[in-house]
Amino acid sequence: MKGAMDGHAEDGGRVYQSSHDQHISEYHYHGSEEPGLAGPDSVRRPAVGRAPVVLRDRAEVLARLRSSTAAGGGGRAFVLHGMGGCGKTAVAYAFFQFATEGDSRVGLWVNASDRASLRSGMLAVAADRGATDGELLAARNGLRPGADLVWERLRRSTEPWLLVLDNADDPEILRDGSWLRTSPNGIVVVTTRRAAPRWWPGAELQHIGVLPRDDAARVLCDLAPQSGTVKQAAEIADKLGRLPLALTLAGGFLSHQVLDPWTMDAYRRHLEEGEGVELIDQGADILSDDDPRHLVARTWHLTLDTFEARGLPEAVTLLRLLARFAPEPLPISLLNHPEVGRAFPRARTESALRALLDQSLTELIDVGVRCVQTHGVLLDSVASATPPETLTVLSTTASKLLDAAVPEQPDAGPEDPQLRLLSPHAIALLRHGAAPPTMAELVATATRLATALHRTGDYLSAWETAEGAVRLSRETLGAEHRLVLAAHSRAGRALFRLGRYAEAERVLRQVRGTQERLFGAADPDTLESSHGLQLVLGNLGQRPEALSLLRATITGRLASLGPAHPLTLRSQASLLTMLSKSELEMPENVSLLSLPTDCEHHLGPDHTVTLGARHNHAWALYVLHRLREAEEEIQLVSEMYERRFGPDYPIALSAQQLHARIQYHLGDVEAAVDLMDEVVQKRANSLGPDHPFTTASRRVLADFRGNGRTAH
Fold first, then answer.
1. H or E segment and range at residue 319
2. 102 occurs within a structural domain
3. Is this prediction's pTM over 0.90?
4. What tens digit of pLDDT does each residue of 232-257 get?
5. Which of 366, 429, 516, 670 has its CA 20 to 30 A from that of 221?
6. What does the buried/exposed string (b/e) look like for 339-369 if buried means 16 or more CB atoms within 10 Å of the residue's CB?
């Protein structure tokens, strides 16, 4: 390197300013036999559970939507808005079927209810439209704007398309990152409870309200034709405010009574005699003074009363348990765990779930993982009416079930779609709140989930989960609670991976300072934050402080964890990338060169820490000008990375770049140029041509081509 120092970080790793070669070492805790991004399996299939038997009314709305497809039309965005349960998704589904079957469009369906679901769904759209594994991986890891990639691919689509963004009840999620756009190639439909035009500039708004009386009556008759007449159905529809969700629940109830079938008249009388339960429909705009939303609660409450009367109290408890979670797909395996026995006998889970499914109170869907999903309006109403004396048991049970679903010791591995599904449920449980002991357990589980997401490369979800745990638990546990601080530290680590170094430094300095004051400098939590902070400082060019902090971390981990612990070995391996030639040759540092052997002995040859130590060792050998040994080591590392992570993975490209440097200094300029050219192309493809990593690789390639043996 000549002239002023211009350090940069590669692969979300570290960089240290120096007057010689720089090596980026911080290895990634993730890997997969299949490096591509796994998105929801339902991107071509609406995840709506059961479609309506017949879509009543809505003819005018559908005609307007269908007209937009004439002559391959595109460039339009429609927003279907209305209260929860009014049938917005049903309208979108009907249009989706028309567009994909009658208009031969590519149909793409994304759940936009939370950031994680929106991001994974939209990246699945990009994959469907031809995005490469490298592009998807970079977007998923936060290394390039995900929305830009999606819309670039949608604009380049050779086929017309329809994109549905369902349940976009928090428009801020779409605004952040500019996920909602238009393109001449396609049509966008959004379903939402939020009607204010300021959220939807340039879109065509369409209100979806309650059904006309006759159509509402026909919905009941469609679902329960043997229960009564159209006139009787109309009277029930009036009592239910003609809200499609309430009508669906009522129809499901009436159609599934076997031992003692109810007539519509009997059902109406119970509605009149029962007391409605106030429904909290978060995020919906009040459409009129005569708001019928509370009638949904009255409808499901009648069903639950019947469950109790017929000896199925577990169905009531199960629905109340589901109401502790988010209205998002919930892996069904989570309910098939012994911890459910805290709320009701585990042997009764199957019959309880079947009862809810039969009554249309929840639905089975498949998003790559078998799940149950329950309407948000229904969950809100159930939660608001849950007896206070049952909340402790329900919250504890939900917390234990979530905890059992998260890996006890998160490690590197392929992307696990179930982890991504768990994130909104962790946040929902925290948002509901609980007694301090249960809240502490939830924070610990959320932190472990964030760690697992981090180690599969889903840094954005990791940050959102950890940050949400901090934000939602502070009031109950206090900002200086050990577990809250650990979650905050994990959020800082995710910020580092996202390249937000200034924020990461601020968070990690604050957390580490508090941990040191409360627990001491040698406490394991303090040392974990110290390791994370030195990574950030190294990337910010603050080498002396980073080196001092890393040495202190190693000393602390040797004392508290011992020399064979993965964290101790990992911190020691980091020293291999920080030391200059003269420092590596000092007697006290010579033993570091045997570290890969120590890691293999204690952890095994395929452990992530062992691989990272070998990568860092290859760099140290390069710095020491032991080029043949360095080449042999980095070839082995590259082969293992490619087998485990794939050839286009960032850390694999980092290893290839080091290999190219070594080849160049060995005099094989042509091979070095060819390999660096491949690295540059792959980084431009995955990160974009202007990403700092791409720019750095391009600079190395230019040195190889233009500066002779001065390049490094």
1. helix 313-322
2. yes
3. no
4. 889 888 877 787 878 887 887 787 76
5. 366
6. bbebbbebebbeebbebbbebbbbbebebbb
